[in-house]
Each structure stands twice: as structure tokens, then as C-alpha cells.
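Hello Y.,

Per our agreement to keep a running log of every chain we model this quarter, I'm adding this entry. I've kept the format consistent with earlier entries: sequence first, then predicted structure.
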Amino acid sequence: MSATPSPSGPVGPLLSVRDLGVTFRTPDGDVRAVDGVSFDLAEGRTLGIVGESGSGKSVTAKALMNLLPSYADVEGTITFDGRDVRALATARERHFWGVELTMVFQDPMTSLNPVKRIGEQIAECLRVHLGRSRRDASAAALDLLERVGIPEPRKRLRQYPHELSGGLRQRVVIAMALACGPRLLIADEPTTALDVTVQKHILDLLDDLRRERGMSMVLITHDLGVVKGRADDVMVMYGGRTMEHAASGPLFTAMRHPYTSALLETIPRIDAAAHARLVPIAGRPPNPSELGPWCPFAPRCGSRVEACTVEAPPLVDDGTGHRSACFAPLGAGEA
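Predicted structure for the entry above:
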């Protein structure tokens, strides 16, 4: 299946999410992990989803991939190229995930089978989903390893995951994700366990492959610096809700939400004075089981007003597509 859009172009967004909610049923009560998240993603574009651990980023991604456990209740609608994703899950359309929509996870060791050779694992994707012969699938696996920049690809095909470095394992996972020519790739913290140099190589690789194949991509990270210059649009999440959503340029030049600003302040700066201290966000992320109707960031926010502790501010569009959920947005008092 080709990832290239049709000549006439898509009629609407490739992916559309409306009022997505995820609640986990636990022995201690219901836990609301995602609350009313909505966004669109056009063909060929990249959406960055940013937030601290526990903000609901990965749960959102797993809802898209139909990977949530049976004790998770999902609300809202998810459509992919006009098709109802939740209906596809009910109908057990297993050739949708992995073929048209696929995912690269945080830890490649949990994505790879430790007792199967690398070549077998990549070829299996092609045989199961696309019906390729063993010979064709093996040849395609070799080509995929070359495309993702793995040295000595023929040798790697015969190796097991534990014989490869973390960076090479992540490249193998990317090769597997791209095997069936998906139209949308979700990359969930794809460089978390890698050193800084390897992180850049992996992120550059994903960006190059996305452009080459005309794919859309959702890039999930806790680091605003990762999405700057790589994502067309950025959605900032906290406490399971959207705090701010805008095109990448306006978000970085005129951010509206105090949480977005606080996240940016935590990033080390190369132009900072020697031995300058990092600026952490005061407090800690909320326990999802203790969230109420108020703004989830209010207890940690230096700009909060009384209304923030009573109700959650609505997500408001300023008329340019820049949306934020804050009763005291940054820059509100400027002329």
C-alpha cells in the first residue's frame, strides 16, 4: 500500500479526533486519563503532542492504536480518512493497524521478540499483513534495514535484538513500522532511552522518511525542544486535557498558556551563562484519580486567578487557529 496521497488530495483531514475521553476502571474508583481531547491532522503533516509524564499523551496514542486494556472506557470519535476507527476495532479489522496506521514505541526491547531474529520479525509483518512470500518478504526486510541506515544490513538480519545497540534496535522498530507503507506513523517518545547524539539521528531519520513517503506523523514527547522545527502543529497536554494547540511557529513565538511557557523554561539553553541553574516547574504533576473540575495546572501555576481553582477554562480559539485553555493567558494585557 502506498503512503503517497492520491492526485486529487484528501477531502478532509486524514485523522480527526473529537472529544476523546478515556476512563480506567480501577479497584479504587474511576480514573480519568484523557478528558475531551480534539484535534485534526492533515495528510503529510506532523503533530507534536507534548507534556510531562501522566499528561495523557501515550493514552491518547494507544486509543488511536486500539491498544487500551479491557478496563478502559473510551468516549468520543476517531476517524481515519473518513472511517470510524472504533468501529474498525469492534469489527476486528486487524489489517488496519500496522498497515495504514502504525506506531513506534518508547522502548524497542519491548517491541521486539527476543527469541526471533531481526529479519524474521520484519518479514513477518509483510507476510501477515500483505501476503508476501518468504523470499519477497526477506528481500524487502533487507531493503528496509538499508533505508533506515543500519550498517551491514545482511548481518543484522541474522542477529537477535540483544546483539544490537539501543540506537540500532530503534531503527529496526522504525523499519518494522514502515514495512507496510503506513499513511500515519505515531512515534511515542521514540528517543527516550538513547543518548543525545543518537536521539538526533533517530529524529532526523523519522523526519526524512516522513517527507520521502508523504506520511503524516504524530510525535509524542515531554520535550518542547524536540518538536520545534519538526512539527507543523503542537498540542500541549496536562492532566489529560489540552492546554494549548497551535501551529508550531505561533506557539513558540506567542505562547499563551503558562504551562507551555514553564515547559520551555525547563530546557537547557546553549546561550545560558555558565553553571546557570535549570528552572524546574514547581510542584509535581497531579494524580489522575484526584483531578477535579478545576484547571489541572492551577496548583502549580504562578498566574492563576480564583476562577482557575473552581472550574476548568474552556479551550478558546483566538481567531487564528491558536487555541488555549487559560483564564489568565500570557500576553493578555499587551496592547
